[in-house]
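hi! just following up on the protien thing from before. the input was this:
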Amino acid sequence: MTFVFSHLSFFSYIASMVVQNHHIEYLISKSEQVLDSQPVFRFKRYLHFHIDWNKRIIGIKGLPGTGKTTLLLQYLNSIRKSLPENKVVYINLDDLFFSSFRIKVLISGLYLQGYRVFAFDQVHLYSGWQDEFMSALEFFSDCQIVFAGSSLIEFPPISDAIFELLGLSYREFLQSKLGQDLAFHNLETIIEKQEALIETLPKGFSPYSHFEEYLSSGYFPALPNIEDDHSTYLNRLIRQTTEIDMATIAGFDVRNARNMQHLLFLILTSAGKKPNSSDWAEISGIHRNTLPSYYRLLEQSGLVHLIFSDVDPSPQQKPEKVIFSHPGFNEIMNFHFHPGFVKQHFALSMLLKKHKVTVDNTGLFCVDKYIQMELPIPGRRRRVQRDDFTFRVTDKPKKNEVGALPLWMFGFLY
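and the predicted 3d structure came back as:
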């Protein structure tokens, strides 16, 4: 009886391996098709130049539509050209095959066929990916794993392997319009060397020629090429983040997704005003004591920015402002917000990529604890005392105006 059971188990194992090998060949074929069909983009995203591509494990996280997959495919295709002996493969983990088939088994099978560089997309849909990646890297000492997933993915804090990809900056958007490379600049250059920055631009360049288009549709690289209208696309992105990504990554109860979406609607309609925690909790159906954790989760997802009065706020501290991560989200309901709010929103979204920003009760913003900035404000201008570390951000500074910073230059911060 024991022999019969073992005999049957053996043949079941062989049958299973046939199915697995068949599917592995299918995944390889699919990978080749995706890599061969990728359009040749002249420009590479800012993050491409910040990643050390020699690391054995590299992760890219971000909102859907920011270009994570394109970044993976560009890297794989560069290896195919420069190091053809290093076989590469692109695997999207949204395939149903991975509901019963483990990554480590796939890597083992591909490794035996000569594959050394593995790219996995949408890792947040696969439970336990961190452990399996680390096990594979330990077992196969000459392989590399690159991966992409939701903004909510987490990795051990001792690792510096994960990078966040934001949407297009105004600089990157202009590159595609002008057909040439444009250098990014730090805040010091914008404050002290504006003329030097302007000299790097094409002759006859008009800094606001494409600004309105960027504010409405320039943040997501995929947006101009989709058939849906902007509102439909952005609504679908929010639903994916709150109903799928949060449920699979953060242990978020999907039954609360509707409350989260209601909160996002309140943030959108508040136009950057200070949140009213009591009203928002009651309207959204979220307990007031739980509201701060919802804010943090939305910030971690990449959908919103939280701006506090302190640089290092406590977990329960209320934000002074909650805004979407880019003014383009205003297209969701086709609201006609005050131009001053939209411009302020733009400046903040660019600054928050690399800088700490706080706001005081007068509406004055503080960058990195010591630089005071008066950003465009809906309504009247506030009178602020000028000094060497206080600046006013405006559309068109007057010639030789002291302490004035052009708004468009903030789009060159990354």
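Residues 1-8, 10-15 have pLDDT under 50 and may be disordered.
Residues 30 and 90 are 8 Å apart (CA to CA).
cheers
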